[in-house]
Design brief:
By secondary structure, this protein is α+β, with helices and mostly antiparallel strands. The protein contains nine helices and 36 strands.
């Protein structure tokens, strides 16, 4: 009975949801994670939805995950068995795998497991030592920091590959080789720079050191490509509100329960329950990167508007930070400093600087901007965790201390400028004054992610996955709640028209007169200013634009 209940929950989560568009490359998704449970904890439901969509899906586990458990070979083998059981559950087929040696550059090899009834699903075990292995403390971090450092792999019991030695260069070469072997159209990895406001128990890393090193190795292996790379938050998702609908959480728990049958050190209670209830990207793309006939995003190390790479002299654009102010004006952030840069038409790029305070290691959130009577008003989450706005030429700090990444600014129908943001304790809302700063507006709303805005309206996702619509005409109170089972934050356009990614990975459009379901997408969608188009990253690694009926 227990197995039947678990598989039913998995089936409820994982619905086959579309195929690649004609003429596009077959979707091939590559996850690179540190340990044999990281993808199912922090990248779900994205990974199981990719499997059920028909994409080729491969996860590379850099470490054996053996920790300090004795004997390490047996525990490493148990974690491999858990990963196999979980992925078989995701695919909805028997837990029956082939295993073989996969050649890597330099005469090295990794262990490749393929699901017999779904050979497009693969697991690669590189076998590097876990951070907590007493025989090779902090191995992955040391490999990242010190090019001369070398470690031997950990052979799981029953392994078909020999123990081998790795240094920093060989790990990068191995990941490049795996990238070439599996030809991904989209890559997922962990958080290379966790927010230091969270997870103080991990010291200066603010997360498991293996997670950071894995993400940094992955980023390095992708240099020179334009593959979309999605970074997922890890342990610190527990420091934000749970953001997945009940059906999705049930599916994640069912999959993780299959893993936990093989790993005696994990469970479904604290702290795992908090990780199972959430999935968050390190830098979501926001909702304002689409305008009529064009879109803006950062691809690799380039800013792309439409199909053209745009020169950004003086700064390197940061992923997820591009946003249209109007069809001829765009804002984007510098990758390193977080400074906001503005381009208006044919004018040169202009730096708007960085608002105080300047806390070391804390990234600014992506900019949101609107045109107001010939000027551009910009708002960001500052490095103090609050909200800062630039209106009259200087930055003003509105307040807040626990704000999520994206802040929204809008010009209302009455001409007022409003700034809205989500914090762990609820919605923050300010109305700007003539001085360029603002006064708080009371709110009892509790978003679990970014608040999307358009003239006269705002919308957010609540803890059930419902979409809540607020209206200026109702004093910024609720006027509609949509049962959407959304796993992305919404985009909004006048009407209001809303777009979100639902629990089955499908793009849905919500109008006052009905709902339309479009194709399978991989991330939060955007809407054009008048709501006639939606766009999102799809499994083939492309940005696709959909006509909104």
């Amino acid at each position: 009975m227990r197995t039947a209940v678990l598989l039913l929950a998995v089936a409820l989560l994982l619905v086959v949801s579309g195929v690649a568009a004609a003429g596009s490359p077959r979707p091939s998704h590559l996850q690179v994670v540190a340990h044999p449970d990281d993808d199912m904890l922090f990248m779900s439901p994205d990974v199981p939805l990719a499997i059920r969509s028909g994409a080729r899906v491969t996860t590379v586990f850099l470490t054996a995950g053996e920790s300090d458990v004795q004997p390490p070979a047996d525990y490493a083998a148990s974690r491999q068995a858990g990963a196999r059981a979980a992925f078989a559950a995701m695919a909805g087929v028997a837990d029956d795998w082939t295993r073989s040696a996969l050649e890597l550059p330099g005469g090295r090899s990794a262990e490749l497991h393929r699901l017999r009834r779904r050979p497009s699903v693969g697991l690669v075990f590189l076998g590097l030592p876990d951070d907590n292995d007493p025989r090779a403390r902090h191995a992955l971090s040391e490999l990242w920091r010190n090019p001369a450092h070398r470690v031997d792999t950990v052979a799981a019991a029953g392994s078909v590959v020999p123990v081998t030695s790795h240094d920093r260069g060989s790990v990068i070469d191995s990941l490049i080789g795996l990238r070439e072997e599996f030809a991904p159209t989209l890559v997922r990895t962990q958080d290379p720079r966790p927010d230091p406001r969270h997870q103080q128990q991990w010291g200066s890393a603010h997360d498991h050191p293996d997670h950071l090193a894995t993400a940094r190795f992955t980023e390095t292996a992708l240099i020179g490509t334009d593959l979309p790379l999605l970074h997922y938050r890890d342990y610190n998702v527990a420091d934000a509100p749970p953001n997945l609908p009940e059906r999705v959480v049930a599916g994640k728990r069912a999959v993780f329960a299959r893993y936990a049958e093989h790993d005696p050190l994990v469970g479904l209670g604290e702290p795992y329950d908090a990780w199972l209830a959430a999935m968050r990207l390190r830098r979501p793309w926001g909702t304002r990167w689409l305008t009529s006939g064009s879109h803006a995003h950062v691809r690799g190390r380039d800013l792309v508007i439409g199909e053209s790479v745009v020169d950004t002299p003086g700064f390197a654009p940061r992923e997820g930070s591009a946003s249209f102010v109007d069809p001829a004006t765009v804002v984007v952030q510098d990758r390193d400093s977080g400074a906001v840069w503005l381009k208006e038409g044919d004018r040169p790029w202009r730096s708007l600087g960085v608002p105080p305070p300047r806390e070391p290691g804390v990234d600014l959130g992506p900019p949101s901007a609107v045109p107001v009577r010939g000027r551009v008003v910009v708002a960001v989450r500052d490095s103090g965790g609050g909200v800062s706005v630039r209106d009259t030429g200087t930055w003003c700090r509105l307040g807040g201390s626990d704000v999520g990444d994206e802040v929204s600014v809008l010009a209302s129908g009455s001409g007022e400028i409003h700034v809205m943001a989500a914090s762990r304790n609820g919605m923050l809302h300010w109305r700007l004054t003539g001085s360029g700063c603002g006064v708080p507006v009371a709110s009892s709303e509790h978003p679990v992610g970014a608040i999307a805005t358009t003239s006269g309206y705002a919308a957010y996702r609540d803890s059930r996955g419902d979409l809540v619509v607020l209206a200026e005409s109702a004093g910024w109170g609720r006027v509609r709640t949509i049962d959407a089972e959304a796993i992305s934050d919404p985009a909004i356009a006048p009407g209001p028209v809303l777009a979100a990614r639902n629990a089955d990975g499908l793009l849905q459009i919500f109008r006052p007169d009905g709902t339309t379901t479009l194709g399978h997408v991989e991330a939060q969608p955007a809407l054009s200013p008048n709501g006639d188009q939606a766009a999102a990253l799809t499994g083939d690694g492309l940005i696709r634009t959909f006509s909104v009926p």
